[in-house]
Protein 1
Amino acid sequence: MSSSPSQEQQPETGNLPVPTINLRILLSLKEAAKIIGLKGSTISKIRENNTVKIGISDKVPGCSDRILSCAGPINNVSNAIGDCIEILNEIDFDTNGNVLPSLKLEKYSFHFLNNILPPPSSAELKPPSHGNDEQQQEGEEEEEVAEEEIDLNKIGTVRLIISNHHLSSIIGKGGNKIKSLISKHGVKIVASKDFLPDSQERLLEIQGFPGSITNVLIDVCEILLNDIDVNFIPEKRYYPHLSYSNSHHNSHNNNNNNNTDNNNPQNNGNKRQRDHADDYNSNNEFKRNVKIPEIYVGAIVGKQGNRIANLRKFTKTKIMIQKRDGQDDHHSDNDEEENRIFTITSNLEKNVELAESMLLRNLDAEILRRQTKFNNETITRNDNDIEMD
């Protein structure tokens, strides 16, 4: 998830404005589907119960992740995310009533979706504290049997996306703030070492009971709101996308086509599937095949083919686009979505590489444009719901 102080007009209670925040969470495709629910019923219930603006990004062909965005007052947002964790913890059944494997056991090629923290244990985690004296006294009386009663299946994990700048404030000098959060709320917290692909954001992974995570998020939001710097330059945000690597023969890619070498921002994105077997043919021509998801082909080609025509002219290459009726000739069982093959040829390899690079950059730009439009529409679409409540 990524989180940033909200710039929207803040709701008021009496004469005092209520601080608002926008948090973003990284989800797998299955996690996103479970939170959305049948025809959006589950996420709608979360939105109504907590009076927040909440939505999940569109599925991007070839990517194994989506982003949940939740905006509103701090307590509301934190409670909404706690509800999401409880939903993910629920047991699923197939049509025959058999219990399905927990999503917690899933392993992903896109390593950011895999838990950084080890499996939970009752010795390290504790249920949320409610803070009043009576409950505290009751808690002390039950302390001896607490470990036996703890159900580890109720423990969940959340992946909060945080800008590198804000993450430093959450960790604190010498890790003092993050250690305090861990001790105070009985949770486990760790920050990812790597940046999310093509961004300046990292993950803050929090493991614990939903209520405990809710309480941690409230404190994290307070830190973020107090960390506003007028001189701060916004860092590049992460969004699920397909990128490319300069290393044509790097085979260390995953289902999300994101390379595991995350120290190089250029290598952090999703590498397109390209066919280099025919890089050089008998006609003294260099050739590259690039797969473009069908839903983006129109934008890449442009109105009346103007955009692709300009690309051909600028790079001095020939670019042939696979026809729809030939889709089956190139379709692979591993393809999650329909793709069209763009074949680039030229007698100069550098021209082919330039055309390939520009083609993929145009695709990235179009994906980002649609993602930004979705995020803006999600916020606008839910404004009226909050006002009516």
Note: Residues 3-238 form a domain with the TATA-Binding Protein fold (CATH 3.30.310.210).
Protein 2
Amino acid sequence: MSKKAFDIYYLFFLLLLLSFNAFVLFGAGMSGGGIGSKMYFATGLSYAIWGIFYFLQFVWYAPTSLAKFLVPHYGNI
């Protein structure tokens, strides 16, 4: 896949993640217990995991010195 295809894929997944997290927070807010800090932590962690995967994909396909530093076997793929 090309880099544009990966970007479109990750953007689609981010929009899906945004809608799912909004649905989860709305459901927690409408329940009797309300939205606790654990719920915010879980949704924030999902965005952090998405960001890590997006950064790794960007570094993996970008021919920069940062990619060669983070991925030592970059040129041997």
Note: Helices lie at 3-30, 37-61, 65-70.
Protein 3
Amino acid sequence: QSYFSTIKIIYTVGYSVSITSLTIAVTVLIAFRRLRCPRNYIHVQLFFTFILKAIAIFIKDAVLFQEEGIDHCSFSTTECKISVVFCHYFMMTNFMWLLVEALYLNCLLLSSLSHGRRYFWWLVLFGWGFPTLFTLIWILTKFYFEDTACWDINQDSPYWWLIKGPIIISVGVNFVLFINIIRILLKKLDPRQINFNNSSQYRRLSRSTLLLIPLFGTHYIVFNFLPEYTSLGLRLYLELCIGSFQGFIVAVLYCFLNQEVQTEIGRRWHGKRSGLVPVWRRTRWTVPSSSGVKMTTSVC
């Protein structure tokens, strides 16, 4: 009991930190006109899914564990079912928007800016519509065929695959796209300088890889394919404690450490607007500039 209480404290802190940092990041990306572009709009949507997922988890905990004397395994009210539905829905949207990020980045790397913009609204529709469809189907199957407890016990339920299945597939596709991004990064390195005995090449590629992992959710490959009988305590620690800080990490890497964002904040802070070429017109997108890898892709 003490261990699970500690886990809850850790992920509560993690989600709280993530909500705060993501809210600031969303405000920054929306407030600055020069940062308004399809790429950053997708970032904002992803940030929102992290925020909504964290809020949904807090609400579910508040509803399910509102009284210590109640056995939540047999607890069944409309409120608790709604809280579980929203928790699963926003969890799935979060994974889908991680996939959208990967798809859009691949579009930018492999095609022109006009093609990337053409795909934008289809990606938005997919990011919100796909989870909505599967969540609605799951709700109907639970209501008509498995209306027991609070819909939060899914260990032996075949209908749980309506939620888990798309998530696992999205993680698998993300992993393939992640490998493709690494392949492109490797090709973008100067072929004349590629020497696997050269430690600087390793550092540059490794830095880019580490920056991409939290965005594409590649680490969830490990979580989804852990054996079902793996220690519950270990799974909770990996999925809740580490996952709760993912939103914070994404906000830091893709907003606060972004060179465009820092330039715009510095421009606003110092009031030096004259004589500067707008960053969004001359900056080509890549993984955050700290990666050290230049890629000739389309602009924002």
Note: Confidence is low (pLDDT under 50) at residues 279-299.
Protein 4
Amino acid sequence: MDSRLSKQIQCSVCLGDFVDPVSLLCDHTFCRQCIGNHSQSSRGLRLCPECRRPYTMWDLRSNRVLRNMVDAVREHLSEQQSLRDRGASAAGTDRTTTGPVLESEMLLCPEHDERLKLFCETDQQLVCLICRDGDNHQGHKFKPVDEAAGPKKYTLALTTHSRISGVKLTPVEFIRFINCSFLLFEVKSTLSKYMNQQFPDRNVISDCHDPYLRVSSDGRSVTRTAKKGLFYRQRDYRPLARTHKTFQSGQHYWEVDVGEKRDWSVGVDEGCISNTNKDIRLQLKHSQGYCVKENGTESDKELSVKPRRIGLYLDCDRRQVCFYNADDMTLLHSSVYASSTPYSLSLSPGVYLQDRNADPLTVCWN
């Protein structure tokens, strides 16, 4: 049963557990590094390692459900192995009389420096002969250590066996859960393809015609290019891409996959509507760390974890902007604004960093 569970979380390229799994449009999933290495080694057309369908790096989508499942399965298998080890240890002590007894004979009383040869049934502790005759144990019942250990070893073995028997049923439920999760992922992928076919105007990011940015064909990803401009502008230049639409009423929510990028920015601004530099954004700067920028003013932001996906909530009616760690919906920052002008989602893939920050920013949910 454990082997069946392990195969469900196994990458077909490296044959190890998934690490940062990503899925292609054909719904096959691989470790991000594995498919990246495969893409670099491919000459010309990139083909899926399993079905040989062509793909591009724009097609990669983080599989958050599978990543959480991998962690859950690992924890489950680890707990099972731990219970088995305890059961084997308890069973072994039933077949021998030397293990724990010898250990107890080697233990010394911290008060009298004598061997702990007796077990006080009243206080449920090991004692030496001097402790037995002392005032603290007057009227107590005692047994030799080996005699007292027998029933307790038997009780421990029964308890451990009972726990292991109870766990034996859970892998079947785990397999069902995993199969259902994969089915839901397939349904989501199918619906996403259908929506993109039926509503091609769902593209999020507009083609900003900035030579330092490249927007994907589906309008959901933006990448920093390696183009070198006048005076090497790309070193500190953080170009922005914005949504087609502006928002002035209602509530709106986006999730942006930032992955392992070293430099990025996610937020809202007034775009080209005004020159007042009104914006609210959460940023990661490679040389500074996390910071919040509000209307041109930056302030450092301490985060306890490194988020891989940012949730951005815009409440136009309350004029409030909230940033979340989308993996567990922990609130990272909240701001209010006074302007009544419409806002746009604005993204920056950050500075180029000599190809060390080349991954795209991808809008995963809108």
Note: The domain at 2-80+170-198 is CATH 3.30.40.10 (Herpes Virus-1).
